[in-house]
Amino acid sequence: MHHGVARLHCTFLVLLLSTTPVWMQTSSRQPHAFLQKYFNFSREDLAAIEIGKIVARLPKTADKREVAALGVVRLNVSKELFLEKFMDLESFKKGETVARVRKFSSPPRSEDLQELDLELEHLNALRTCKVGECKVKIPAELIERVKKEINWSAANHKYRATALTRQFLLDYVRAYLRDGNAALVSYGDQQYPQRLADEFRSLLDQSPYLFETAPDLVKHLANFPRVQLPGAEDFIYWSKEKQRGLKTVLGVTHVTVYRQTGELGSQIIIASKQLYANHYFEGSLALTWLVDAEAGAAKTGCYLIYLNRSRMDALRGPMSWLKRSLSRGRIREGLVKNLQLTRETVEGAKDQP
Question: Is 111 among the domain residues?
């Protein structure tokens, strides 16, 4: 499995924020007050983090389709080393669950998608795809183009479908970089409306911890590219990821890395905003927050707080409560395992020449 926070997306995870928030204006840099205020962490939970344990929570959500997963771990490496590993995205996400990952150039080029091919399940879905009835998530306009432009009896149908998908993604990313959330996809695979812009707006609106502690980041995420964030770096990547027993997910993600120096020192926030997913996800927002451990501690390093909120099509319908109940243990277990792998990877990198 991939040893990194970014891959936690498909197992329903991600992280948080910062400026110099009120809850951090104490003699300690520990994010204890934040975890207590917003996620009801107990003193026992906080003590466990300090002795190296990973603490995971599945916060309650207002939307029945949404799964939220929060994990906290103390790393024995600097946040700068963690970020260095993360920015080498192709290596950081590499693992048995990640078939492909590639950053888009600036500006995006067709060459960025040369390695993208389509799974057989995706091709078969396209073959029978109709607006409102499709087994792959794509907009209605692309469904119509597939019907008109691909002859499924022709020998080159896979090449044509792949080329059309690559062009759709390239045009889509270019439009997003120009128009921001106004360009976000409206999926046409089901009878009910699926506007990604609405889902993302709702995720932000239901994130009080972001509004109170990182208002500039909220503005940037909500109004990109019109509202720029000084000290931030943005990039977009596409990936193909597969968890055991699930379909391969072709996704596109916008990442914002925000470095800030505040009263208590420098902090790093990594925000991952889903722009597209061909299966399962109706919207997802992931944030990663890194903050230095307190100066003078016996074991220095940084805290990693990871919060992921994902809305899933499988959680629609009358049996959604049962699916959610059955998955809770597996989600928490997967989060702890992935954070442990992340810790082993980045702490191991510290000792390499």
Answer: no
CB 7 within 8 A of CB 93: yes
pLDDT of residue 154: 96
**Sequence-ordered list of residues with C-beta below 8 angstroms from that of 39, at least 6 positions apart, any chain:** 57, 59, 70
- Residue 112 domain flag: no
pLDDT tier, 263 (very low <50, low <70, confident <90, very high otherwise): very low
- d(C-alpha 236, C-alpha 222), whole Å: 16
CATH code for the domain in which residue 230 is found: 3.30.530.20
Q: Is residue 290 part of a domain?
A: yes
Tokens 């996620």 map to which residue?
A: 39
Does any domain span residue 162?
A: no
- The token pair at 161 is 């479908």
Half-sphere exposure of 105 (CA within 13 A, CB side): 9
Q: pTM for the full model?
A: 0.87
Alpha-helical (H) ranges within 189-287 are: 196-205, 208-213, 215-223
Q: What's the whole-number average pLDDT of the chain?
A: 85
The reported pLDDT for the residue numbered 328 is 79
List Cα–Cα distances, 14 to 111, 246, 333, in angstroms: 30, 20, 15
> Residue 6 pLDDT > 50, yes or no?
no
Which two three-digit tokens encode residue 235? 């990039």
